[in-house]
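Running this now, will post back.
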Amino acid sequence: MKIAGKIITVVGLILLLLSYEPVLAKTVNYAPKIVSLSASKKVATSGEKITLTVKAYDQNKDKIYYEWSASGSKGSFSSKTSTRVTWTAPLVTSETTVTIKLKAYDKKKASSYKTLQIKVKPKSLSQLFKELKDSSVLITSNSGLGSGVVISADGRILTCYHVIKGAVRADVGLADGRWFNVVKLESYDPEHDWAVININAAGLKPVKLTTKLPQVGEQVFTIGNPQGLSWSMASGIVSSNDRLLNGNNYLQITAPVNPGNSGGPLFNRKGEMVGIVNMKLSDSEGLNFAIPYKTVVENKDNVLVFNAPLEEVFSPEAYQERIDNAVNELNNQEVDYLNPLMIGDIDFGRVTYENGIWDDDSGQTHYGIDIVVDYQQFLSIYGSHLDEQGFDESMTFFSSTLVKFLSDYFGIPEMEIWFRVRDTLSGYPEDGIIPESSITDHGDGTYTVDWYFYKAVESGDDFKDNWG
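Update: finished.
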């Protein structure tokens, strides 16, 4: 019995062991532990490079990988196994808190995270002036002086068109004292008043450009040459970023603007160029304006491209050709809004345009266009001129607008439009309006009248007071 019992006990133990499923200890994949995350500076300046350092260990002795990212940045600025990286603070216009986020992970993708906040302050105006002074230029010409800004290292300069309009020679001065002749007018946009000129220079320092409009209240500054006081800095705020004047949008700023500033860069606190200084309202303070760089970009495909020396673009021969072409187009295209005798419901018939270039007694050449009407049209104009103030205003507006338009597109510093009555009559005009010196007697009962009765210039002289 004792033997049988032992056998039963042994068999039972064997069966028990056969049915037993052992439970093994599981291997745990611990995420790396970030002990510390630090920066060489807790307060950085816009664009400054600082060092970020992390200390971490992995309980499983696995290799640790680090992925860094920062708020406001696109994606990660570094992703590597290094525990120390260099980070460049973003360009800011005001004090900004940036959050640095660190992800530590092993090859099994077990991850842990830690963040660090860094304050980023904009550069001081003194720092920005030192960095951007070399990108601002002085422009002198036979038309006067102005400012400009370097937009490419090989000598492309952006300025206002009116700074170089009509100039047969211009020179560009750099902040380091060097001077260069303008070798080429690349292109210009008369409607929005900007141009690109070229100088033979290399290694220049172009500005950073942005089409983003500054916000109202944002601080901006200029570097230019007011009244020839070279490389002067002035700051202010944006009063409006979409001020509509004469059909164009401008940045309205409080930064002081004076003759000589035109064409100079307008910067934000990041040091990006947001526009070029254009004008101020006369007899006012703090009402100054700049062309947004956004306007330049939006109209870059609609400019007049020349790629020629200034003396070719703004030459008497060029003016002659452009006026001839304009006269032909005006006569061949029946466009009512270019006919000064189509005013509202008033229709005095069509006019004829002629090349109006002439030399005065001193030998000075005047560039213009003659608008020729016949005798009956003239009598109708004369009657309306006496009776309707609205007609006077319409003629004044049409004339001054057309003069400015043609002057800008041709590049002629001063343009003239003359209204002229010319006709052959079967009898002597008895109205006494036309001076006798402008009436020719042909001896056969016919008479020719040829009289310039109104001169229009860009200043918009009143039609009623400036004819005859």
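The CA atoms of residues 179 and 214 lie 33 Å apart. More later if anyone needs it.
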